[in-house]
Amino acid sequence: MAEEAAPPVDLFARDEGHGPTVVLLHGIGSNHTVWNGVLPFLVPEFRVVAPDLRGHGRSSAPPGSSFTFSELAEDVRRLLEDRKIDAAHLVGLSGGALLALRIALDRPERLRSLTMVSGAAYTDAHTRSVSQRWTETYTKEGRDPFALRLLKDLYYPDWIEAHLDFADQLRAQVKRQDFGPAVRWARSMETFDERPRIASLRMPTLIVQAMDDNVVDASHGRILRQSIAGAKIRILAETGHMVPVERPKETAEAIAAFVRQVESPPAPG
């Protein structure tokens, strides 16, 4: 059964630089600022477009939005069209990685390459249980316990200890943010499963996976690499789910090297 879709949304996006276009998609409950540490390394060489997806950050959502992947993908298609981007190197984090995979499968002609960071081909029982735990903590215990839960689940413990100011910032963000859109997107993600189609993908693909991801098990990175012909993988040790936040330089270097390789003409012979 086809997903019902609300009207497309004009997405706010940070758009900087020149060169091959790299589009960065954030995950559930986040916004374009999750890529702030990555952008300075990419902008000197590429045009980088980092949108806020519907209902997140500075992008609105129609009242009837159910945050299906069809809705989210149509918003991204419209963004590319409005910005006159014929084909982009699409990068997604977490839920944004699932969205990027869906777009790659449905509209491959709009992409030059696919990069999935902390992503998967399907939502397994573990990820669903983590999402349900977040919802229960938020609704039953309140915002402060919810913020602490996010810190424990999303970030590597040693990184948190070294960035206690970030923990304070996250608590402040949780206190003022409306998580309704995130809850609806998480609900639609529960049934996400592209395993029947993943082997048909014929596109340069990079998988960036953290070994200590408590949300998406690291085994999903290996599944993606084995399922997508020619896929490359970069594995980061002592790193949690939020790879671009914890390891921005390494994330940017992996993306840049991959995009350069895709853009380079094949050597003679």
Sum this structure up briefly:
The chain has 12 helices and 7 strands. It is α/β, with parallel strands linked by helices and 269 residues long.
List the helices and strands and how they pair.
Elements: E1 13-16, E2 21-25, H1 39-42, E3 47-51, H2 69-82, E4 88-93, H3 95-106, E5 111-117, H4 125-140, H5 143-154, H6 157-162, H7 164-176, H8 180-189, H9 195-198, E6 205-210, H10 219-227, E7 232-236, H11 243-246, H12 248-263
Parallel strand pairs: 2-3, 2-4, 4-5, 5-6, 6-7
Antiparallel strand pairs: 1-3
Helix pairs in contact: 4-5, 5-7
What does this structure look like?
The chain is of the alpha/beta class and 269 residues long. The chain has a single domain, classed as Rossmann fold, CATH 3.40.50. Helix content is 45%, strand content 14%. It contains twelve helices and seven strands. Helix 4 packs antiparallel against helix 5 and helix 5 packs across helix 7 (164-176). The chain is globular. The termini are far apart.
Order of helices and strands: EEHEHEHEHHHHHHEHEHH
Which range does the strand content fall in? Answer: 5-15%
- How much is the radius of gyration in Å? 17 Å
Specify the overall morphology.
globular
Number of discrete helical segments: 12
The residue fraction in helices comes out at: 40-55%
CATH C-level label: Alpha Beta
Class from helix and strand fractions: alpha/beta
Please give the CATH architecture: 3-Layer(aba) Sandwich
Quaternary state reads: single chain
Q: How is the biggest beta sheet arranged?
A: 7 strands, mixed
Report the average pLDDT across residues: 95
At the third CATH level, what is the topology name?
Rossmann fold
Number of domains: 1
Sheet with most strands: strand arrangement? 1-3-2-4-5-6-7
Stretches where pLDDT is under 50 for at least 5 consecutive residues are: none
CATH superfamily: Alpha/Beta hydrolase fold, catalytic domain
Q: N- to C-terminal separation?
A: 48 Å
